[in-house]
Amino acid sequence: MKDTLIISDTSLPVSLAEIPVTAYALFRQRVLTAMADENMHCVSYFAFPDDGEYRFICILADDQTHQLCLMGHRDQGPFLSLTADNPAFHVFEREIYERTGILPEEHPWLKPLRFSVDRQNSHKGMDHYPFFNIAGDELHEVGVGPVHAGIIEPGHFRFICHGEKVLHLEIQLGYQHRGIERMMESSRGGLSHALLAESIAGDSVIGHASTHAAVIETLSGSRLSASLSIERAVALELERIAMHTGDSAALCADVAYQLGQVVYESLRTIIINTTQRWCGNRFGKGLVRPHGTWFPLNEDLGRIICNNLDAVMERLLPMVDRLFTLPSVVSRFDGTGAVSRSQMLAVGAVGMAARSAGLKRDIRWSHPSMPWKETAFQPVVLETGDVMARAMLRKIETEQSVSLIRHWIDQIKEQAGAIEQPDYQRTLLPDALAVQLTEGWRGEICHVAITDKHGKIMCYKIIDPSFHNWMALALAVRMQEISDFPVCNKSFNLSYCGHDL
Question: How far apart are CA 298 and CA 295, in angstroms?
């Protein structure tokens, strides 16, 4: 179709001139028709200034055909919202409104998303946030945050309760708008951009750094070697294992199972210390750079990684047997915080949260890059969508990641060649767009970069999986005891800073 551009290979850049720009009515029709297929979901929808008006680009992922669909329109004034017909667009359109001032008319939940002051009305800023209200003498509200009890990142949670039962949770974020996307669009050099990418979310360094590097490599027309692709995949799966074991420790802590907490914490330490042994940083900072690496994965390092994974699995499996058979744990996990498959579809959930509720969304399977293309990979998909499913999925994915790492390290041993070093000076193609997707441990990470006629980045769009999934957490606690909120929250473990860009 002339109004849709299909991308089958994200390693190739797209000319801006090739991306269709249609009348909004046609654009809206095409998007809603496409999204009626549950194999489709929106990975990014944003606007940027172009010739005195705003150009909008929407990127849909077709999980069945493994393709991306790009559509666009131009607007200076209000347009009819997509959200009323497809709730998954609510965060995209709220962000567009904040950044452009262009009103998505009939949007049912047009509240501040990130900025401290709404662009259209300063009275809609954080100090005057329009929380949802339910009238009733038997109801009460409980506010948590924005200063977090665990001294982590800021976010405010407003519960409406009937006794101990939660009727509604509204989550207000945006306290730390850091301007990372705007800094990506500045004239800073390639090294600065790489450092920014690995600072988007501190627990997803490899995920975001790999996605950014792939975007830059696409725009510069370069292809990764097989060995460098494998190195990044190994690092990504180590990050997945580390976070899954760390989250399992947090889940144990929230149900007062101290033995599980300390065992999982010790196993996480082994994994992040392995990453530190690799590159000098426990979270992988400095490991991923465009076009090359300063820390090649050699045979000796591969042996260390495999030995450490053996040590982890030797202690993990007995703990897993205890955790999922202990009545006090099972009673808190089983049936708590359930989100249905249809609800996950409605809000556009991604990653492990979606997979725990029967929704097969995993970029490693649906839109694979190297070495996933040559790996017989199938995502872990569970059905119940509760805390138990999200905990069990972590356990199964950890075993899966260990198997993948061992397989790839065996391939590394067979490969030889010159070490590719990072390069921050390569020229980027002008008037081009690159989009890259990575399945981080939390879920789908999307980076989009657009260059101007001089090959400079003029628009950089980041979508962290938490952007899609915060509404799913709000749904998870409905009709639950308010005391179950901590374990529900930990079972998602969404990112504040990944949202507050």
Answer: 9
Main-chain dihedrals φ then ψ at residue 236, nearest 5 degrees: -65, -40
Question: What's the pTM?
Answer: 0.95
* Cα distances (angstroms) measured from residue 277 to each of 96, 184, 229, 295, 300: 42, 30, 20, 10, 11
The domains found in the chain, sorted by start residue, are 5-113 (no CATH), 189-467 (1.10.645.10)
The greatest distance separating any two alpha carbons of the chain, rounded to the nearest whole angstrom, comes to: 73
Angle at 278 between CA 275 and CA 284, to 5 degrees: 45
Contacts of 304 (CB under 8 A, 6+ apart): 274, 277
Tokens of 247: 């989250």
Quote the tokens at residue 403: 């198997």
- In this structure, are strands 165-172 and 156-162 parallel, antiparallel, or unpaired? antiparallel
pLDDT band with cut points at 50, 70 and 90 for residue 35: very high
* pLDDT interval class at 2 (50, 70, 90): confident
* pLDDT of the residue at 115: 74
pLDDT of residue 376: 86
CB 422 within 8 A of CB 291: yes
